[in-house]
Amino acid sequence: MKVACVIPLYNNASTVLAVAGDCRRYLEQVVVVDDGSSDLPPHFDRDLQAIGGELIRHSHNRGKGAAIKSALALLNRSDTDYMITIDADGQHLPDDLPQFLDLLAKDGQDGDLIVIGARDFTGKNIPDASKFGRQFSNFWVKLETGVNCDDSQSGFRAYPVKALSRLKLRCCRYNFEIEVLVRCLWGGLRLREIPIGVIYAPPGERITHFRPFMDNLRLSLLHTALVARRLSGLPSRRLVATAPAPNTPSPWKSPRAFFLFLLHENATPGLLGLSAGLSSFLAILPLLSCHMLVILYVCIRLRLNKVMALAIQNLFMPPLTPFLCLQLGYFMRHGTFLREASMQTVVYELHLRYLDWLLGSLVLAPPIAVVVGLTVYAAASRLNRKKSRLDHAGCSEKS
Q: Of 7, 78, 99, 275, which sits with the fewest C-beta atoms within 10 Å of its C-beta?
């Protein structure tokens, strides 16, 4: 296979040549994409050429995603099979490249593999914001694709060039790496992760171009759009010829196995909490006679735990929850509570007070959903820890 290395560059003149030189020890083609840097010396082109690197230049800063897209276009024209992206700031270790190359040689011959280097976050100087951001991002990628990813924010990756070139990718900055990962998984590519080392400079010395407000806003908007696309049911562009075979037991041939599958499906504490919270929110809304259908649809599209969602829904069955919402909505509109609360006014005439019900539910649903979701998450996390301790104790007794 033909594999090239791509190094997006923006104002990392002090480290990029060393990174490119180390990458050249393992790969014949190393492409540096200068994304409008202002700190490069006048002879940078010559120095890069001296170590065997190629240079693509942007006249102004367009973003990391735009830099990767420029390299992708170049490599696609030259029939490159895979491109491996690595950061220019020295955070990633080029000595981890052989792991990528070995995995691609063994398992990537069909051009349907995306490989991510999962960073070791047990070392020194790892920012707490990076740890939280990684877990937060992993959660949303799991929700959007149903695939577990240990480090969805890592920039040390191997992409299949031909498959990637078929995608219409809109993001151009740091959000590009989330968009391309999700759309690759939607397209049927296989994900593999390998452990890699990472170097973080001490606080105050590290150079970062991540802008917390704007880049986090872009990421939040992207996740919102991806979840909405997932809920819409619109088909995604397939990047491989065949879809993976379903591994769900048949409810008719193996009802017990099917029920156990539903119980354990997407049963991490985070997804259980989200299932409970989202089900609570939807169950409180005035979705007349179709709560169960809406909840099931959302759970299927987002691959949530259906058993948890349907069980939580029963907590908000009529008449108590609609009555509370109706009273709150009535108070918001008229400044007083509905005094004549009877079967006639609350149940039989509920359709006449739909607006009151809707207003009250929109106020009550969000906080109740948060409380229920966090409660289920805490309970599931505690049960997981208890199970881990019991499993550890059992293993110790056997040994």
A: 78
Backbone angles phi, psi at 36, to 5 degrees: 75, 35
Select from 232, 240, 230 the least CA-distant residue to 191: 240
Span(s) in the chain for CATH 3.90.550.10: 3-232
What is the sign, positive or negative, of the torsion defined by CA atoms of 148, 151, 154, 157?
negative
Alpha carbons 251 and 260: distance in angstroms, whole number: 11
The rounded distance, in Å, linking the Cα atoms of 114 and 170 is: 19
DSSP labels, 145-182: HS---S-TT---EEEEHHHHHTS-----STTHHHHHHH
* pTM for the model: 0.80
CA pair distance 352, 195, nearest whole angstrom: 60
Cβ(185)–Cβ(145) below 8 Å = yes
Write down the CATH number for the domain with range 3-232: 3.90.550.10
Q: Give yes or no for a cis peptide into 319 (omega within 30° of 0).
A: yes
Nearest Cα to 70, choosing from 27, 34, 114, 111?
A: 34
Q: Scan for tokens 């990537």, then name that residue.
A: 108
Q: Are 11 and 37 in contact (CB under 8 A)?
A: yes
pLDDT, tens digit, for every residue of 309-339? 989 999 998 778 888 888 899 899 888 887 7
